Amino acid sequence: MTYDLFIGDRTFSSWSLRGWLMLEKFGLPHRTHMVGLYDGTMEQDLKDLTPARLVPVMRDADGLVIFDSLAMAETLAERHPDANLWPADPAARALARSITAEMHSGFSALRGDCPMQLRHQWQGFTPSDAVKADLSRIGTLWAIARTRHGADGPWLFGRYSLADAFYAPVAARIAGYALPVGKTAQAYVDTTLADPAFRQWRALGLTKSYDPDPYDQPLDHTAWPGLRPVPARAVTDGTPENTACPYSGKAPTHLMETGGRIFGFCNATCRDKTVIDPEAWPAFTALRDGTT
Predict the structure, then answer these.
(1) pLDDT in tens, 278-289
(2) Tens digits of residue pLDDT in 145-164
(3) Which CATH number fits domain 3-83: 3.40.30.10, 3.30.450.20, 3.40.50.720, 3.50.30.10?
(4) Could you give the dihedral angle defined by the CA atoms of residues 9, 176, 168 and 233, in that order, rounded to the nearest 10 degrees?
C-alpha cells in the first residue's frame, strides 16, 4: 500500500516532519504532496481531504483520510506490525507511547516561544522560565528512556521508534535556538541532526525561500549546528561526469561542482538539495564514489 502524505513545509512545519518520518524511517511506501501552509492556499489544497484542516494528512489507497499525527502513528503501527514502529518490549512500548502522547499534547512554552526552523542557529535567545521547565521535563523523559531501554542504539529506545519521530522537531528546536540541555539530551540532539533522513528533509526544505522568513527573530545567527556538509556549489558551465540524474535517471540540465568535479541533475531541486548537503543522498554519493 502506498500512502499519500500531505505536508506544509519542510523548514518550519514541525508536525509535517513528524508525519514524514513515520513513513520514511520505517520504509513505508508514500508519495509526498505540498500544501500551501505559508502561501495562503492551505484550505483550498485540503478541500478534497475533509474533515482535515491542518497538516500532516495521510490518505491510504482506499481513500481513507487520517488527519492527526498521533492517529497516523497508531494507524501505521496497527497496519504494519512487522515494521516495529513501537518498541517490542512491553515496558519500553508503554513508556514510548506515554512520552509520545505527552509530546503531542504538551510543552506549549517551548513550542510557542521556539518555533521550529532549520535554517541556522539563533544566537542570544533567552529562554523563559516556562521554556526551561519544558526543557527540564524533556531531559528527564529522554534520560529515563535512554537509561532503561536505550542499550541497543543511540535512539530513545535503542532502535528508532515513533517516539523519535515525534521528538525530532524538539531536538531541532534545541539546536535552532541553542537551548541549554544536559549531556544526555545534547547527545540525542546530535544523533537526530546527524540522521540521514533528517538531513535529507532539511536539505529539501532549504531549496525553498520565503521573504520574510516565518518566525523571524531580532537576533544574530550562526551556521546550523549539525554535521558540516561537504562543500558544493551550483554552476552554469562545465561537462558533467554523469549522463543521467542520480535521482530520476533523466538527462542532466543543471550542474553542480564539488571537489573539482562536475555533476549533472535533471532539475534545480535535484541539484540544489545536493548542493546543500551532498552526503545526505545515497544515490549521489554512490555516483560520486563509483559504487553504483
Answers:
(1) 999 999 999 999
(2) 999 999 999 999 999 999 99
(3) 3.40.30.10
(4) 60
